[in-house]
Amino acid sequence: MTVDYSRVAVFDVRNFIWNQLQSYNILSANDYVADGFDTPLVPIIPSQQIPEFNNLLPGVTYITYDIIQKTPPGTQWWITEETMILQVVSKSNSTILTIINFLTDLFRRYEYTANDINTTANSTGSPFKFFYFKIETSNPVQPFVDEGGYMSGDMSFIYTYARSVDEGINLSGRYI
User: Fold this and answer.
1) Distant-in-sequence, close-in-space partners of 44: CB < 8 Å, separation ≥ 6
2) What is the pLDDT of residues 102-161, one digit of tens each?
3) Residues 6+ apart with CB under 8 A from 54
């Protein structure tokens, strides 16, 4: 049995956010097809990829993320707790507010959000089981850095999960 430790839980969360933003017509995949590409880019990127993303798709709205893993794990050692920090970057104040409001509704539902992500992630063979999500912070739109430039809005939320180290996604693994 081999466990793929290159797969991380944040990818399931990122894919869920992107699918939800498209499902509610807040962002469209058609706006994220770069010249020379056949498929759209996912506009939810690690903050280290900002220069590349801006070069490929200048002027479009995107979201950056960072992850903080909470340590020590405590007595429930099989549960991992992480904070996802999002920064919505856009030239449109209303787009930033729309996305932040939507994400607040999406991630403030504790185990209901976890259930939604588990349903989606399990269909792709995810080794993760999410337990709950909760909003940590949500900040209003930040001012222009330069006139006519990008603005940003920030939010963060906490989520907990366990990784199955058994083959497949059954619950008889070392952790779940």
Assistant:
1) 14, 17, 18, 62, 63, 64, 65
2) 999 999 999 999 999 999 888 888 999 999 999 999 987 876 665 568 899 999 999 999
3) none
